[in-house]
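Quick start: what a row looks like.
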Amino acid sequence: MTTKAKTVKLDPAEPDHAFSRCREIVESGGVIAYPTDTFYGLGADPRNHRAVKKLFEIKGRTEDQPILLLIADAEDVREWASSVPPRARELMERYWPGPLTLILSAKPDVLPELTARTGAIGLRVPGSELTRGLLRYLGRALTGTSANRSGKPSPRTAAEAEAAIGDAIDLILDGGDTAGGEPSTVVDVKSGSVKVLRQGAIPLLRIDD
């Protein structure tokens, strides 16, 4: 019999109980589903090789597909990126928190699985206060790929996340419905210029103006 992941309901007035359960799982190398400003994401400790490997297995994702990270504050970029060009700083100031993923040159100690061995890492400060609160409570970044099997629809609710991958993960943080809609816009700014890799919630014209 397949075991489903435990679901913990978040009480916005007292989030620490639910957040502490998430921390237990993440610190032990497990994988959680949690709400972001777009869809439910799959969260694992990006410094833990085994946890990241497990995430790839859950997703059915190939090694040539990178995994973006969600961070609590723009200052956390320095933990992951070896350099932050001025144009990247402009976009951070303009669109973070929000649905903009920036591709930057990764520090040498970033797990190569996260970068698809390209030396580049995707980073985003999510627009959801709940998500940023969780990240601050954990004191670390989380992987931010959607809580689904590769190629399947991204879940907007905890119930959809449970139906999609509840038999493969350790915990689901039910923070209510997410906004859905377009995924984050992905922009490569490693070189200092802007290259849009995926059109998403932030229109290209706004990025370029």
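That is the whole record. The mean pLDDT is 94. Strands lie at 6-9, 32-35, 40-43, 69-70, 100-105, 120-124, 142-143, 171-174, 185-188, 195-198.
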